[in-house]
Design goal:
single chain, mainly alpha, two-stranded antiparallel ribbon, 15 helices, 1% strand, globular
Length: 344
């Protein structure tokens, strides 16, 4: 049983370590030449050091080791997978990696998670037909982990965006896990959210970026914990709550894949047509874009928490309602913004 004070103390430690170490990681990255050079796809115009992801991970690690989670076999598997991706991300930020080697390392991390018994539970998803479809558990788990890991990476295009969305998602996941009685997952999600939050103040104004080390770690963590935290939700609805929690990066990635397939371009090839790019094209400032996407994430997060407390049938309706509300609300806000811009 986790002591109640740990739910407050360990996130504070994670936040404090991440916040304190980010300037140090920035200096180290700069001295090692681990910087993000500007190009035609990026918003910043001067080189910006990476290193924020290292601080986020160290903030998480400090709290994780103090939590006693190493006594949990699944938590050990989670840590091993995270270490693989953080190491891969650091190498990528320093030397650069092509898409295929990164995909291979993400796949290895996913296989580690599956090996340690963290999988999507088909007995929850399919009532009465478990044996017939049990083989889907492993591929679904694999694609979910690799997909969400890359989804966070793809939205990391503006100051505070990926870290902020990850923080909101982690805290939402903590709330859903608490509702489900998954208190160990609740604590881990709080720690990850707090570590990500500690990086955000340094990230604004392009002082330092989290790099692939940070985005892959956060994406991987959210993917794995969402599997663990939603396991007790009824029937197939157990997949809808994690989708709601991570709606922004998931849909942005899905549309990117469709867009690249239709235009016959490689799926891994970057472009400037993600959600945040579209909002910038409509005249939103970078800060307004980040705040707008934060609001969408809060809305989906609130819907996910509420859905976890009601019957699955009502949850489906809430999910559809939230999609419609986001679509209508987004259109209204964009039209209001465009009118305001025209008056100026």
């Amino acid at each position: 049983m986790i002591q109640n004070n740990l739910y407050f103390l360990l996130p504070v430690i994670a936040f404090g370590v991440s916040y304190a170490l980010t300037p140090w990681a920035r200096k180290i990255s700069q001295s090692c030449g681990m910087v993000d050079e500007p190009n035609h796809r990026k918003i910043h115009s001067t080189p910006v050091p990476y290193g924020g992801g290292i601080a986020i991970f160290l903030g998480f690690l400090a709290a994780f080791l103090l939590s006693g989670a190493l006594d949990n076999t699944k938590a050990v598997g989670f840590l091993i997978g995270a270490l693989i991706l953080v190491a891969t991300g650091i190498y990528d930020d320093l030397k650069g990696l092509h898409a295929l080697p990164k995909f291979v390392m993400q796949s290895i991390a996913a296989v580690v998670i599956i090996h340690f018994g963290i999988t999507i539970d088909m007995s929850v998803l399919l009532r009465g037909r478990v044996a017939e479809f049990q083989y889907l558990s492993i591929p679904l788990t694999y694609f979910w982990i690799v997909g969400v890991t890359n989804a966070i990476n793809l939205i990391d295009g503006l100051d505070g965006l990926a870290a902020g969305v990850s923080t909101i998602s982690a805290f939402t996941l903590a709330a859903v896990s608490w509702i489900n009685g998954m208190h160990d997952v609740t604590l881990l999600a709080l720690i990850i959210g707090a570590a990500s939050m500690g990086f955000i103040p340094h990230n604004f104004r392009s002082q330092v970026f989290m790099g692939d080390a940070g985005s892959m770690f956060l994406g991987f963590s959210l993917a794995v914990l969402s599997i663990m935290g939603a396991v007790k939700l009824a029937a197939a609805f157990s997949l809808f709550v994690p989708i709601m929690i991570l709606a922004i990066p998931i849909f942005d990635t899905l549309f990117a894949i469709i867009r690249r397939v239709v235009t016959r371009r490689p799926i891994y090839e970057g472009d400037k047509k993600h959600l945040h790019h579209r909002l910038l094209e409509l005249g939103f400032s970078p800060l307004q874009t980040v705040i707008f996407i934060y609001l969408l994430s809060f809305l989906f997060g609130g819907m996910a928490i509420f859905s976890a407390m009601v019957r699955p049938r009502n949850g489906y309706l809430i999910f559809l309602f939230s999609l419609a509300l986001v679509a209508v609300g987004s259109i209204i806000l964009i039209l209001i913004h465009q009118r305001t811009q025209k008056k100026k």
